[in-house]
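Batch 3, record 17
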Amino acid sequence: MKTDIVDDAIEIWFGPQHVSAHGWATKLTLVGDYIVECDPNAGYFHRSAEKVMEFRNFRQGALIMERLCMLEAFLAEYPYVTAVEKIAGLEVPERAKVMRTIMMEASRIHSLQFWWGQFAAELGLFTMLLWPWVDREFFLDAFEELSGSRHAVSYNTPGGVKYDFNEGVIAKLERAMDRIEDRLPKFKDMLLRGPTFRVRTQGIGQFTAEQGLKWGLSGPNIKACGVPMDLRKDDPDPSLAYDMCDWEVPTVHNEDHPGESDAYDRMVQRFLEVETSLGIIKQLLPQVPDGPIIDPKHRAKANRLPEGEAYGRVEGTRGVTTLWLKTQDKAQTPWRAKIRGPCFSSYYSLKHLVPSSKFADFIVIFGSLDPYPGWWDR
Amino acid sequence: MGFFSVLGDMFRIFKHVFRQVFVRPFTSLYPFEDRYYPERTRGRHIHIREKCTACSQCVRACPVVAIRIDKEDKMYEKDAALYFDYSRCIFCGLCVEACRFDSLFHTPIVDLSEGERDDLLYGPDKIETLERDPLEWRGRRFR
Ligand code: SF4
Ligand code: SF4
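Prediction for the assembled complex:
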């Protein structure tokens, strides 16, 4: 008896109503329990952020960037701010540089804590959803003490930062760091040594460094393949203070499959990222220099910008986040802003990554790439 | 995976679970308990009318057009009435930053829920004072 497997194939939509779908929808073609085709569909989150930016002035624009990814708000608003600074030729005071860097790293840790919880919940480990999210509250308390808002911080502004550090902020930041340092070994023990977790992630969603680079992946996804690609080291930004501390780009080298990464390696990579960020914050906190946080003369320069174009970029939690900004002479609003979110490429890499894996592994592969729909639907 | 390694894994997991069981709950019983709000909290605004100069910088700074100004409505020499639409406000703080006359501030009050949508439009009577009627629900009074 001969059966044509194409006759057995069924098409299903994963999302947008599915609970772990976060509002995205992917069309999957299944034969039995196996996926033969995966068709990612961006567009369910589209809020025309780039168009909205054309109608907002240079102080308001960063608010939109920050709302694209609330989890890494300090990092997300930075490309816009730095692009404006480049066009206007603004100098950032030393104190603001260090403060920016500290808060950006804190934001990275916070975002990764959120991701652990979410990824573990997608695997069915619900306890691991709640524990990192409790620790995350400590960082949110620090953000609230600093800026007055837990998520939409609106902290960076062209020419410097808006709110100064005080004792309360530093105390809360230290408390949050102590807490995560205390809990990191526990999480490692629970996840990386947990048999359920290992079985569900090892050998799942494996790709080589060449494939990853071809698909345009960046950040932890490509660092997990052993490629030390990190904008913080490769292209040190003069308005940030990464050169004031001593750190190494964390990469994973797996003996079983060198040059390749699976979902497990990406989890290990994100543990390393947190440790690196903690190290950077610890070195920078005692080094915060005295001085102003923003130059009032420069502040007014951001009202009207000369003609020009600039490219702002930052190594976000999920990869390289960039923004291209073009202005016309004496304009109050940008002529065009173009965002490159890191998750667009990781979402569309599913097209090559998912086929021939099991349906149950789909969410593991997707979750391990640290998706955030705000970054692919602008 | 042998019997003992499985037993070891189970023991390890139980160790973490039992430690967690005796931890105090992290959540609080809102609205019976209130959490701590820092001084900088960007909650609802307060408009100090004596100092306002009707410069409308706050209106220009707002990215979502949540503020409306009525320059005819004068209580003092050169002030103006402000209307805040809290169904639009995103609590970004740009209006407070733009006000150079110390007339507009955020307050740490963030519970703005109302039964009617129109009640979220804070006119001059509501935006200039922090007093409000306590909320009553099933015979209980909150705040
Ligand atoms: S906080 Fe922001 S959104 Fe709200 S009224 Fe002020 S400027 Fe407008
Ligand atoms: S509140 Fe401040 S910014 Fe707004 S009109 Fe009055 S003085 Fe001007």
